[in-house]
Here is the input.
Amino acid sequence: MTQSYRAGPGFRKRGVISRLSDLIWPPRSLLSDEIVDRPGVIEPTLWGELKFMSEPLCACCGFPLPDHAGPGDQCGPCLSGKPAFDTARAALAYNDHARRLVLDLKRGGRRDGLQVFARWMATAAGENLARADFLAPAPMHWTRLAVRSFNQAAWLAEALAKASGKPWKPGALTRVKRRKSQAGLSASERRRNVGGAIKASAGVKGKTILVVDDVFTTGATLEACARALRKAGAAEVHAVTLARVVRSTDILI
Here is the structure.
């Protein structure tokens, strides 16, 4: 996947206020403390260490397949038990650099990479973004939202909506039960932990929906979102994340 490490036209059209702000808070690289000429820039040396997801991928969940795999091939788990979502795709493989991007966004509330992330995710989602009626961020329970003050999945969905011209609906999915953090749980524990915790609104009936989240680890959260959307009558459910864990022991089934 060929990418430019420099920010796109959206960053070049920057106003006087943004430029003055840079004098006080100089923009820094998304992957280091180096000062750069505009937000969203990554130095070429670090850019080359990002691993973008590319074909061949499982036609369903997007897990990397052997080089000899062809279009339409699926991984073993998807063949043995199809997930509730139709497809899932991710922009980046979750290595150390992707981890920094995700944690700076998720825990640090760093927003200056959102437009860049949106372009990567739009490329990863491809035709599934084009066919979506709207985007729906993976939800956060209101008590966690009150503590953190933001939902990084909603930030990503909003940025992707702006980049693509698609509407997004933050209320399409709601987390109705607070459960413990998914961090450190096995795939089966994650599925049990999130089971029954998410509900979809009536407005999803008959719609094609693209669920947006930060990381696909085991797929448990996206599976729960898709099940809720299916139950509410969604016609198709696709998903896209900024990053994806690619260890075979972490896939959904």
Observations:
- The chain is about 35% helix and 15% strand.
- The first strand starts at residue 87 and ends at 93.
- Residues 50-250 form a domain with the Rossmann fold fold (CATH 3.40.50.2020).
- The two ends are 28 Å apart (CA to CA).
